[in-house]
Specification:
The structure holds two protein chains of two kinds.
Chain A: H1 11-19, H2 23-52, E1 60-61, E2 75-76, E3 91-97, H3 104-119, E4 126-132, H4 140-148, E5 154-158, H5 161-170, E6 175-182, E7 185-190, E8 194-197, E9 203-207, H6 213-223
Parallel strand pairs in A: 3-4, 4-5
Antiparallel strand pairs in A: 1-9, 2-5, 3-8, 6-7, 8-9
Helix pairs in contact in A: 3-6
Chain B: H1 2-14, E1 24-25, E2 30-32, E3 38-40, E4 47-54, H2 60-79, E5 86-93, H3 100-107, E6 112-115, H4 119-129, E7 143-146, E8 151-156, H5 164-181, H6 186-195
Parallel strand pairs in B: 4-5, 5-6
Antiparallel strand pairs in B: 1-8, 2-3, 4-7, 7-8
Helix pairs in contact in B: 2-5
Classes of the chains: A alpha+beta, B alpha/beta.
Amino acid sequence: MSAPTIDPLDPIDGDVEATSPPRGRHRLRTFSLIVGTPMLVVALAFGAFSLFRPHIYSGTVMQAPTAAPSMDGLEWTDGTPVDLDALQGDVVVLYFGYTGCPDVCPTTLAQVGKALDRLGDDARRVHVVMVSVDPARDTPELLGEYMSSYGPEFAGATGPIDAVERVASTYGIFFARGDDYGNGDYAVDHTATLMGIDTSGHLRIVWPATLDVDRLASDLRALL
Amino acid sequence: MVLLALGAMAFAYFQPIQVLPRIRLAPGYAMVDQFDDMVTSEDGRGVITLYTFVPLGCGEACDRVDDTMRSVRDRVGRDVDLGGTEFRLVTVVLDPDVAPAALVGAAGDDDWSWLTGTAEQIENVVGLGFRRSADPAYFTPSYAIVDGWGMIRGEYRYQTLADDADKLVRHIDVLGGELRNSSGIASFAYGAAHVFQCYP
């Protein structure tokens, strides 16, 4: 009697070998399912978030979209009344300062100018408006000259002191006569925040005067 | 995307974090207090301020407002963690051109500013800024919470059956939570709470 031979193509043994993976491989597949699936979902969620996430503003955004308070009583430096509605479709960066301001106003306006440079051609859709908190000394001519020195997007607005006080108050701006430098020269203390009015004419965002240029540019781009 | 949408819906529904809305800018001003010192809106930078607006000598109604302000101050000092942020009270007197000395008796407490000004200043601050009647004849108790960035975060115009002090303290506590926690990675969650309007 000869010894039994094993046919490598034996249908029964072959099936068992082909359809039953080793125990180690089975565990690996289960492990991949349990760990890999959540990782894939998280990766996809992160990917989707980075693709579609809304812009995170560096300034403080107001939730309630309220129309920017009117500037009745103020005039541009050419004598025409300030009408913010006429600027809808563009972004307005609003600031309250004065031409004799020794430090914070020129620094802030220069920073805004640099932020506009970052925007390239889009800067043409941004208007930078400074309302003078020193209307007694800031004549329209002086204010116009001062603002245009920063660039074509910069404009000044002024008016009678009671109108300036009313408008400033509604924008959360305080100002009062400060230190006396002698010879009739004096400082005007004032709130130095910047405000952003969106393309729909809503007062949307407030920036501190010390905001980084890149962050301001990024916020302005998002507002556009 | 589906998971993101579901997560956003769950966040908006369950409101795991609540915030007070950033309603609008509080008005800017420079007025005079009971000590004849100039007080400006800039003094409120970095400080949470509870405002109220009263005529002088309006009797019981004004006494209730004063009691509420005092109660809020005491309870905030005792029970609310503002993360080191200062809290102050400001009463804007609706009668114009009151002599500061006349406010000393009404104010009672040194750490509570009572402000007076011209009729125009009061109209700018109370009427245009806080958007309520600046006319003493139409006085109704009202309050406003303003944060350290000069934003109005809560407006309370009408007296209800609920205790005003309870509501104000609860909302100041919510603001304190945001001040304590809205830095670093948690700021995204607080940003989301604003976007999804998770208001108390």
